[in-house]
Amino acid sequence: MSSQDEQFPAAAAAPEAAAADEGMTWWYRWLCRIAGVIGGLSCAFSGLWNCVTINPLNIAAGVWMMLNAFVLFLCEAPFCCQFIEFANAVAARADRLRAWQKAAFYCGMAVFPVMLSLTLTTLLGNAIAFATGVLYGLSALGKKGDAISYARIHQQQKQMDEEKLTGSLEGQAL
């Protein structure tokens, strides 16, 4: 147990509690994390490749992509950044974010370099990082209901509408 975990015991349990509150299963949480790591690798390599040019917008987009890679590694896989002192604190704070906040953050980070320099390298390099944001966004939507419960709710709504209609017709007849 690190000294930070001793200082902030709630921070160590925060990722599991936040994920449990949002209803994410363990495998979906791992899928999001793996997508974040792969997205970070994709951004890093594409960003480095994008910097090998004389066009200043491509260089700026490449630097932004490498920054995206660093943030993705820092938030999703802090063990990759174990020699950076503040990595665990940033990861703990990122784990306390809601899924829709992570989705907006990751998608926004991935869209910016594409808007800066629309090339195939920036599109392909940021695609997996954007997909990570989409995965978090889908988890924020929640579970889809099954067809039986949806049909039952629809039937109850229909019965209530019929009762209201019959009650208003009876009220007119009197």
Number of strands: 0
| Domain module tally | 2
Question: How much of the polypeptide forms β-strand, as a percent range?
Answer: under 5%
Give the overall silhouette: elongated
H and E string? HHHHHHHH
Rg, rounded, reads: 23 Å
**DSSP helix count?**
8
Distance between the termini: 77 Å
Assign the structural class, choosing from mainly alpha, mainly beta, alpha/beta, alpha+beta, or little secondary structure.
mainly alpha
Q: What is the mean predicted local confidence, pLDDT?
A: 80
Transmembrane segments: 30-49, 69-91, 103-136
Family: Belongs to the calcium channel flower family.
Keywords: Membrane, Transmembrane, Transmembrane helix
GO biological process, one term: vesicle-mediated transport
Please, could you describe this protein's structure?
It is built from eight helices and no strands. The protein is an all-alpha fold and about 170 residues long. The protein folds into two domains: about 140 residues, no CATH class; about 30 residues. The N and C termini lie far apart (about 75 Å).
Write a brief caption for the model.
The protein has about 170 residues and is mainly alpha-helical.
SSE blueprint:
Layout (H helix, E strand, L loop, with lengths): L2 H5 L1 H14 L3 H25 L5 H21 L10 H9 L3 H18 L3 H22 L5 H27 L1
